[in-house]
Amino acid sequence: MIVKKLELDFFRNYAHLEVSFDPRVNLIYGDNAQGKTNLLEAIAYLSAARSHRARYDKEMIMLGVDSAFLKGEVFSRSRDFTLEAKLFRGRGRQLHSNGVRLKTAGELAGVLNTVLFCPEDLSLIRAGAADRRKFLDSAICQLRPRYAQALAEYHRLCDHKTRILRDWPENPSLLQLLDDFNLRMAQTGAIVIHYRAHFIKRLKEHAPAIHADFSGGREGLELTYETVSTIDDPKKQPRELLPMLLDHQERHRQAELDSRQCLSGPHKDDLAVTIGGQSAKTYASQGQTRTAALSFKLAQREIFQEETGEWPVLLLDDVLSELDPRRQAFVLNRIRGGQVFITCCEEEKLEGLEGGRAFHIQNGKVS
Question: Which of 41, 52, 19, 13 is nearest to 343 (CA)?
Answer without folding.
Answer: 41
